[in-house]
Write a structure and sequence with these properties.
three-stranded antiparallel beta sheet, two-stranded antiparallel ribbon, alpha+beta, 2 domains, 110 residues, binds zinc ion, single chain
């Protein structure tokens, strides 16, 4: 969305012809409200958000269970670094989740 410089109307950018994505190019746009033509340029900016990852500096990973369906395919994902691993036997019991094998067994009996 872009604000029309003439009337201030919020205008949907027309990307139909693949325009409007390239950086440092001037594009034309018609305002449907006041029917004036204006130009705009695109500037693409990247945002980097840094956060601490203690687990990459000698601390434990802080694993959290993923929301996977079927739940037998759940993994443990580190909230800090995004590392994934399979559930341990203890975690399967804790979260009441069977193994993948038990899931396939269940399918067979359906
Ligand atoms: Zn306008
Ligand atoms: Zn981690």
């Amino acid at each position: 969305m872009i604000d029309c410089p003439y009337c201030g109307e919020r205008v949907e950018i027309n990307h139909d012809d693949g325009q409007g994505y390239a950086e440092d190019q001037t594009h034309q746009q018609d305002c449907p409200e006041c029917e004036k033509t204006f130009v705009f340029t695109t500037s693409i900016s990247f945002h980097y958000n840094a956060s601490k990852a203690d687990c990459l500096n000698g601390s434990e990973h802080t694993y959290k269970i993923t929301n996977t369906c079927p739940k037998e395919f759940s993994r443990m994902c580190c909230t800090q670094c995004g590392h994934e691993r399979n559930l341990t036997e203890q975690e399967r019991i804790l979260y009441k989740i069977g193994t993948k094998e038990s899931y396939f067994e269940k399918l067979k009996t359906l």
